[in-house]
């Protein structure tokens, strides 16, 4: 082997080393890019989550304000339903009360007639008893 051949071999080895070193640098750069992209994606995800949280919190605060003012749609709907049920119940109670009053009045009149009839019958019996003695 000549000295020139040896230099060519060294040169080839050096060139291989440079190529491998360059590949490693490229891989390191790619890994860094991946980490940066992941961090950016993670940051974007976190920002989106925080924005959703803030939006939801703002919505809940608005609903609380509406509720305290008595204007929340679901609250108003349920209050109307309760008022309707209350009015129906009051109406049914009034109808029941009127029915019970009429029933009691009829029962009173019936018992009064019965008492008057018994009184008259007993009165007749006593008169007959006195006359027969």
TrEMBL record:
Instruction: For this UniProt record, give its keywords in alphabetical order, as a comma-separated list.
Output: Nucleus, Repressor, Transcription, Transcription regulation
InterPro entries documented for this protein: Sds3
Where does it mainly reside?
Answer: nucleus
Manganese as a keyword of this entry, yes or no, is: no
Q: Name one GO cellular component term.
A: nucleoplasm
Q: Which Pfam families match?
A: Sds3 (PF08598)
Q: Where in the cell?
A: Nucleus
What are the GO BP annotations of this UniProt entry?
regulation of gene expression
Point to the regions of Acidic residues compositional bias: 1-11, 21-31
Region feature (Disordered): 1-31
Q: Does the keyword Transcription regulation apply?
A: yes
Question: What is the name listed in the Swiss-Prot or TrEMBL entry for this protein?
Answer: Uncharacterized protein
Give the source species.
Oppiella nova
The lineage, from the top, is:
Eukaryota, Metazoa, Ecdysozoa, Arthropoda, Chelicerata
């Amino acid at each position: 082997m000549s000295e020139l051949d040896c230099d060519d071999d060294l040169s080839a080895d050096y060139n291989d080393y440079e190529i491998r070193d360059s590949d490693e640098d490229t891989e390191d750069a790619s890994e860094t890019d991946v980490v940066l992209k992941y961090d950016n994606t993670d940051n974007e995800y976190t920002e989106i989550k925080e924005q959703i949280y803030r939006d939801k919190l703002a919505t809940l605060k608005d609903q609380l304000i509406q509720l305290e003012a008595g204007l929340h749609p679901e609250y108003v709907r349920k209050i109307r339903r309760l008022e309707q049920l209350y009015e129906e119940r009051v109406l049914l109670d009034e109808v029941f009360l009127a029915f019970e009053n009429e029933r009691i009045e009829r029962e009173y009149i019936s018992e009064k007639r019965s008492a008057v009839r018994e009184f008259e019958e007993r009165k007749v019996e006593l008169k007959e008893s006195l006359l027969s003695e």
